[in-house]
Amino acid sequence: MASEIGVSRQTMWNWTKKHQDFFDALKRAYDEGLAWWERKGREGSMGQIQGFNSTAYIFQMKNRFRDEWRDKIDHDVEFSGDINITLGGNVDD
After folding, report:
1. What letter does residue 14 receive in the DSSP assignment?
2. What is the DSSP letter of 47?
3. Would you state the pLDDT for residue 84?
């Protein structure tokens, strides 16, 4: 998005830190962009867009919206205590 309006990403980050309303506007633009792309995906999957390429669409979504469109979900698990693992052996042991 930064390149589309002619500023660096760092400038965008600096603005979001200094101006809460800019941060809010950027978040709203992100959410509206996600909604637009998802709507296009639904239209394409229903045959309403001639030449719709689902593979290209999926790559667009994964690159534009990394947090929402991931194949792998990371899970953080905290555990304290002992874990006993036995490899091999018989079921009856």
Report:
1. H
2. T
3. 82
